[in-house]
Design a protein that fits this description.
Blueprint (H helix, E strand, L loop, with lengths): L10 H16 L4 H17 L5 H16 L3 E5 L1 H6 L1 H11 L3 E3 L6 H13 L5 E2 L5 E2 L8 E2 L9 E5 L3 H9 L3 E5 L6 H5 L2 E3 L3 H15 L4 H9 L3 H21 L1
Parallel strand pairs: 1-2, 1-6, 2-3, 6-7, 7-8
Antiparallel strand pairs: 4-5
Helix pairs in contact: 1-2, 3-9, 3-10, 5-9
The structure holds ligand PTJ.
């Protein structure tokens, strides 16, 4: 890992980048994951690198959906595994939602490495290696576990590619995504789009889960029913415009 001084003005962002580089070196993150991280950094810069009010609402609704679901799953790819392994395990533990590794650039070796990585971070069980069911997709993200994503009613998919999101919604599942790009096909297809960095979003969702577990079903349902994803996306774009205007004035 590079030696980045703590007082560097871009410390948090650079350390996050280092985790992705380390993920590639460990063989858990794909090389394409580096490019995805760069794109994410750009959108994060435009949102001011903080959780917006509307992202926090989406995070709350995402937690409500996970708690209400009958067969929810937290999907894990190479970027999420490198950036937030502890938080993935913690969120799974607090909400009781199982983890499943599902990759775009799939190899059995990388699936197993990510499963072991999550276990090293405290996961007791991680789905994804059975690979006994298929989504209606041409690429390897179609390969899933029947007891996991295939039969899930709600799936949380951080850093997603649009095709799979569309396939999951097409199968009647509810999809919660975490994607810093509010213009992506995933963001526009998901039922709930959290426009936030996965690093902040996961921590917020863990914090929210503790309190929300105590809410009754009617209160959780109300949150979901009142939610409007197109408003979240408009808010995110408007936030970026405001930030650009602010920058152009200085
Ligand atoms: O590990 P694999 O093989 O499953 O591959 C994972 C990647 C992410 C490489 C793959 O799914 C991919 O190519 O994704 P895309 O199409 O590049 O989409 C990734 C989306 O995540 C983009 O819209 C980025 O802006 C966004 N993104 C990147 N980093 C972050 C992020 N969103 C939230 N937090 C981030 N840290």
């Amino acid at each position: 890992m590079s030696d980045i001084p703590k007082d560097h003005p871009r410390y948090v962002s650079l350390m996050t980048r280092e985790k992705i580089v380390e993920g590639v070196e460990l063989g858990i993150t794909s090389q394409q994951g580096l490019v995805a991280q760069g794109r994410g950094e750009c959108f994060d810069y435009l949102t001011g690198e903080q959780t917006t009010d509307s992202a926090l609402i989406a995070e709350k609704v995402g937690v409500a959906m996970l708690l209400l679901a009958e067969r929810p799953v937290l999907s894990v790819n190479g970027n999420a595994a490198a950036l937030v392994p502890d938080s993935l395990v913690k969120l799974s533990e607090v909400t009781g939602v199982p983890l499943e590794v599902n990759l775009f650039h799939r190899s059995e070796e990388r699936v197993n490495r990510i499963i072991n990585h999550l276990k090293d971070h405290g996961a007791l069980e991680v789905l994804g290696s059975k690979a006994d069911a298929r989504l209606a997709l041409q690429h390897s993200r179609a390969i899933v576990d029947s007891e996991g994503i295939y039969n899930a009613d709600v799936v949380l998919v951080p850093l997603e590619d649009g095709d799979r999101c569309q396939a999951l919604v097409g199968m009647g599942k509810s999809v919660i995504t975490i994607d810093l790009n509010p213009l992506s096909r995933t963001s526009r297809t998901a039922n709930v789009t959290i426009v936030d960095n996965v690093v902040r979003a996961m921590d917020n969702m863990i914090d929210l889960s503790y309190g929300m577990k105590e809410l009754d079903e009617a209160e959780l349902r109300k949150l979901v029913e009142e939610y409007d994803n197109s408003r979240t996306l408009s808010d995110a774009v408007r936030q970026m415009i405001r930030k650009l205007e602010e920058l152009s004035d200085t």
